[in-house]
Amino acid sequence: MPLTLLLLLFLWPVQPAQVVRRFDPPPQRWLAGHRGVDLGAQPGAVVRSAGAGRVSFVGSPGGVGTVTVSHAGGLRTTYQPLSPTVALGDDITAGDQLGLLTAGREDCPAAACLHWGLLRGDAYLDPLALLGLGQVRLMPLAQR
User: Fold this and answer.
1) Which CATH code for domain 3-135?
2) Could you tell me the CA-to-CA distances from 7 to 40, 42, 61, 127 in Å, in that order?
3) Which end of the chain is more exposed for a tag (fewer CB within 10 A), N or C?
4) pLDDT at position 142 over 80
């Protein structure tokens, strides 16, 4: 799917959206890094799906409420921490509610932060690219 079409299909997952920490992947997959973006918002803010797809995970790994949505083209977006209001297998459209943002992350400079991630396969990508705002990174073909 051409990037110009993707840009029309994805929305901010919280409103108003304030990026408080950007995507900062590690130089090697096994090293520490920030594999998504943090969006500052108020606790209890509605978290919406950035794009149409199917809910492929709902759970609380490490006690953190998490929802994953699988999209066309092999993309997956992740959202945490939240109190989910969807169920595994739900079909959703862009802007549908996934849950309510919860507070409690010590590394968040806002009242609450949504950690929004993007993956294709097992490769983490900058979710801001879905909105035409991310950094362009060239990857060797072997890592695709």
Assistant:
1) 2.70.70.10
2) 22, 26, 30, 11
3) C
4) no
